[in-house]
Amino acid sequence: MGTLPERIVFTHGGERFAVMHGGATDISRFIWPVSKDTEIAAEIAALTDQVGGFDHIIAGHSGIPMQRIVDGVSWMNTGAVGMPSHNGRPDTSFCYLSDNNFIIKKLPYDFNATIKAMKAAGLTQGYHETLRSGYWPSEDTLPPEMRR
After folding, report:
1. Helix (H) and strand (E) counts for the chain?
2. pLDDT of 93-108, one tens digit each?
3. Which of 47, 60, 122, 125 is the most exposed place for a label (fewest CB within 10 A)?
């Protein structure tokens, strides 16, 4: 993992895309559906300084799917294919690109089999129950308005 680039830039359909984990100012930066436009604009500006202009950002880290347009740039977070979106539903999410539009899809799966496998591997720190409940075991990183 240490040899992978922190940023990937590509062109598709005549538009430029930048891909990163969290934010341009911090790889583990959380950008939430409720983040202020000014926070997202600051990340867009920092990323522009790093890689030049672009039309779309694909970022992750927060684990909650969202799409926002700020200053004419589309910011996309796919969510986490291995973790529910803290919404009380066990399905996870992914997205795909179609004609330069992001499509977010839910992904139902056999979470009971996954829970069983996690228990067998000793992975019982709370996330195994998240797969069933759809809620994260800790809300510490979530903004107050996204907590239960």
Report:
1. 3, 7
2. 999 999 888 999 999 9
3. 122
pLDDT in tens, 17-35: 999 999 999 999 999 999 9
What residues contact 110, with CB distance under 8 A and at least 6 apart?
none
Domain that holds residue 39: 8-77
Pairing of strands 101-107, 92-98: antiparallel
In a domain, 14, yes or no: yes
What is the identity of the amino acid at 65?
P
The residue assigned the tokens 């107050």 is: 144
Distance CA 41, CA 69 (A): 10
Q: Is 22 within the bounds of a domain? A: yes
Half-sphere exposure of 21 (CA within 13 A, CB side): 10
The token pair at 124 is: 């019982």
Backbone angles phi, psi at 53, to 5 degrees: -70, 160
The answer to whether residue 67 sits within a structural domain is: yes
